[in-house]
Amino acid sequence: MKSRYSRTKLVLGFFGLLLLLATAFPWRIWVNLQNDLRILEGEKHYVNIASPLSVHVKGDQEGVLSLNGSPVSSEASKLSLRSPISFSGQGLGSVNLEFRLFGVIPLRQLTVNVLPEQKLIPGGHSIGIKLHSDGVLVVGHHLVNGENGSTSPANEAGIEKGDVILAIDGTKLEDANQVAEIIARRGTAGNPFQFTIKRDGQKVEKEVDAVLCRDTGRPRIGLYVRDSAAGVGTLTFYCPQTKRYGALGHVITDVDTNQPIEVKDGRIVNANIVDIKQARRGYPGEKTGIFQESKDIAGNITKNNTFGIFGSFTSLNNPSGVEHQPLPMALMSQVETGPAEILTVVEGQEIERFDIEIQRVYTQSRPGDKGMVIRITDERLLDATGGIVQGMSGSPIIQNGRLVGAVTHVFVNDPTRGYGIFIEWMVMESGILDEQGDLSTTALDFEIAM
């Protein structure tokens, strides 16, 4: 009996220890702390770990950060986790923190970057987007009627939809017309073409034997290719001092392959909105715009990725509508659920303000284009568009006097709702934070009419 009682006591003690660890061990230090945390100089950021335990923390830089009012140093100091941890930016710079339980057990490492307050001018402008890809994109195959029947030589050679053709026989491709010109220049028999393609970031070589088409009398390889794309989107922000901008908030993909377009060159121009197809359940709707080559909006496109398109302006002349004043950039930790507004165009070039609600904010440990869920609440915008429509991507989101994000996606089954991206991810991609010197909005050195 005594032995059975001892075993029962041991089992209960074991489960009691597990319960203690589950409730007291600071598990949230992994969940609630990002690998890289960004805060503004002079501002505070709170993280609630909610554990009765304490940890020891030290950093590799002094004068940058304080925790609960105590400056971080290379000497480990004790930190209670009962109350929320207060991160306070004391000076510009970066500090690597190390958290240890009981001063011995490693718990967590993270980097805290203290940034200067960044002011940007919100956009809302409708822009025409013209992109040329690096190489030519394979968008499909077709059959060639040859002597031995119908076939697609490129397909048989293993060239796939979504591949990017970089060169043929060593000749670098600048546009789609070159493909037909190179193939037409020589015969077909026993003389395969050497294709250099890019697939999933890797270069691959393929040999393709052209077939003499009985219908046209010309050598053909059975491929559909494209080298450019165009569409309408919305400018999110710009910085007059660096001339840099960010737009869209999501990557531009090819309509047929759904693959991101690798940019060789591109530009943005002014777009005049002439029609809107209203969104409805199962159909996202879209803006229709006319591209206008003018000095009102002119710029290049140097980057197309998950967070939008980015480049530099040569000129920007603000149209009628809202007054464009610089606003401070909000960090992810400063975005909250509740009322907000967006800037966008629904007719012509006039930028208007519309009410929305931020319904959910996701804590992202790494950059992504779906950081918040938003809902259109403005009846005027709902009457005009039915909700979020194509061409509205990039519309800046403003909350509490700060630029917090941009509209990126629509919920197809509920077009009044969609996703937004945090503005800090877009600003990081724009290169603005890499520029040296004071970025406060002062004198302009290129054409901007406020």
Identify the notable features of this structure and list them briefly:
450 residues; mainly beta; Immunoglobulin-like; Thrombin, subunit H; Pdz3 Domain; 3 domains; six-stranded antiparallel β-barrel; six-stranded antiparallel beta barrel; 6 helices; 34 strands; 12% helix; disordered C terminus
Task: Give the structure's gist in a few sentences.
With 450 residues, the chain is mostly beta strands. It is built from 6 helices and 34 strands.
- What name does CATH use for the topology of the largest domain? Thrombin, subunit H
How many domains make up the coordinates? 3
Query: How many distinct beta strands?
Result: 34
Q: Structural class, please?
A: mainly beta
Q: What fraction of the residues are assigned to beta strands by DSSP?
A: over 45%
Termini gap? 89 Å
Low-confidence stretches: 436-450
The 3D shape can be described as globular
Rg estimate, integer Å:
28 Å
**Known CATH architecture of the largest domain:** Beta Barrel
CATH class of the largest domain: Mainly Beta
Domain Peptidase S55: 202-442
Organism: Dethiobacter alkaliphilus AHT 1
Protein name: Stage IV sporulation protein B
Pfam families: PDZ_2, Peptidase_S55
Structure description:
It comes from Dethiobacter alkaliphilus AHT 1. Residues 202-442 form the Peptidase S55 domain. The protein has helices at 2-24, 28-31, 153-156, 177-184, 379-385, 423-430; strands at 36-40, 44-47, 54-59, 65-67, 70-71, 77-80, 85-89, 93-101, 105-115, 119-122, 126-141, 144-146, 149-151, 164-168, 171-172, 193-199, 202-208, 211-212, 219-220, 223-239, 244-247, 263-277, 286-292, 297-300, 303-305, 308-317, 327-328, 338-345, 351-361, 372-376, 396-399, 402-411, 414-422, 447-449. It has 450 residues and is mainly β. It folds into 3 domains: 26-115, Sandwich (Immunoglobulin-like), CATH 2.60.40; 119-129 and 229-449, Beta Barrel (Thrombin, subunit H); 143-221, PDZ domain (Pdz3 Domain, Roll), CATH 2.30.42.10. The strands form 6 sheets. It has a 6-stranded antiparallel beta barrel with strand order 11-20-21-26-24-22. A 6-stranded antiparallel β-barrel has the order 28-29-30-33-32-31. Strand 14 (164-168) and strand 15 (171-172) form a beta hairpin. The N and C termini lie far apart (89 Å). 36% of the residues are buried.
